[in-house]
Amino acid sequence: SGQKPTFHSLPINAFARICDFSPIKSLLQLRLVSKSLNEHVCVLIKTRKTVVKEFSVKYASDSPYPLKTVAELYLCFLHQRHAIIWHSCLTHAFNKIQLTPLKFSTYLDKNSNYSVSRSFVRLANFLYSGSYNNTQVGGIENSSRVLEA
Amino acid sequence: RIYPLMRVTLTTSDGASVTVSRQLTKHSGFIEKAITDMAVDDNAVPLSAVAVDVDDATLKLVIEWLTEHRDDALPYPEKTDEERRADDIPAWDQAFVQKWDTKEDQQQTLYAVITAADKLDIKGLLDMTCKTLANKINGKTVEEMREILQLECDFTEEELAEIRKENAWCEN
C-alpha cells in the first residue's frame, strides 16, 4: 500500500493479542487514550475471562451478590456504556450494609435517572435468584428480553 | 512429518522474490495453506511462487526470525488468559527487536512485523512482537501511552471523568 504503518493500522487480531498481554489496569488506562481505543478496549475487556477473577479479587468479600455475577454485570454495563450505573450501585453496596434485591431496586429508583435502570433491576433480581447462565449476559437489551420472555 | 517439497519461493508486495526452506515456512499457517491450496504434488517441481502481502524489507526480518525459530515445536502452544505473560521474551528475540525498533522509526517497523506475522499466521512471531508492544505500554500513564502510540486525545473533560469513574474499581 506504501502507507507507513501506525498503531491504528494494526489488524484487530493483533490489537487483541497486545491486550492479551496487558494487565487489566493498563487496559483500563488505554480506555482514556482516545475514543477509538476506548471502543476497541471495551469490546475486548468483555471477552477477557480473567477480568471476572480480577474484579472479584478486588472486591474480596462482603458483596450480597455472587462475585462472579458482580464482575459479569460490570462487563455487561461497560460494554453498553452504562458501567457508571453499576459503579454507583457497587460503591453504595460497599459503603452501606448488605443490600437485598429489593433495597437495591429502591436505591436505583431513587438515585438513577437512566432509562435502563428498570432493565438493570430486573437483571439484578434475575441473577440474584440463581436462575442464570452465561449465555444470557449479552447486554441489557438481550437480558431484558430474556427476563420478559 | 516429512516435507518432500524442500523449498518455497515467496513473492513480496513490492515485487521481490525469495526462496526459503520449507523448514521455515511450516511455521506460517498462511504459506502452508497456500501450498496445500495449490494441490502440489509432492514430487512436482517447480512450484508456483506463493504471493505474500508483505514488503521485502519486512519479509527479510520475518525470515531471520523464522530461521532462529525453525526448530520450535508445532503446533504453537496456545496459552490461556491466566497463563499469558509478557515478561518471558527470549533473549535472542529481545536482541532481534532491539536491532530495528528505534525511536526515530516511531515503531513503524514493529507495526509492520506485527502485521506481517498476523497476515502470514506465524503465531510465535505475532505473540513475541505483541508482547514487545504491550511491554512498552504496560505500567505507563495515559499521557505516556498517548506519546508511545502517537495518538491524540479526542475526549472532552466530562467524558474522561466518566471513564475514570468506571475504572475506579481497579485503582489502588
Structure description:
- The complex is a heterodimer of chains A (149) and B (172).
- Chain A has 2 domains: 1-47; 60-148, no CATH class.
- Helices cover 65% and strands 0% of the residues of chain A.
- Chain A contains 9 helices and no strands.
- The longest helix of chain A has 13 residues, at 35-47.
- Chain A is elongated.
- Chain B has one domain: Potassium Channel Kv1.1, Chain A (2-Layer Sandwich).
- Chain B is elongated and about 60 Å long.
- The model of chain B has no long low-confidence stretch (mean pLDDT 88).
Architecture of chain B, CATH level 2?
Answer: 2-Layer Sandwich
Please indicate the percent range of residues of chain B in DSSP E strands (runs of 2 or more).
5-15%
Uncertain stretches of 5 or more adjacent residues of chain A: 60-65, 81-85, 92-101, 111-149
Work out the number of β strands of chain A.
0
Tally of individual domains of chain A: 2
- What is the element string of chain A, with H for helices and E for strands? HHHHHHHHH
Query: Gap between N and C termini of chain B, in Å?
Result: 52 Å
Tell me the fraction of residues in β-strands of chain A, as a range.
Answer: under 5%
Element pattern of chain B in H and E:
EEHHEHHHHHH
The profile of the biggest β sheet of chain A is:
none
Question: Largest sheet of chain B, described in full?
Answer: 3 strands, mixed
Describe, in short, the structure shown.
The complex is a heterodimer of chains A (about 150) and B (about 170). Chain A is an all-alpha fold and about 150 residues long.
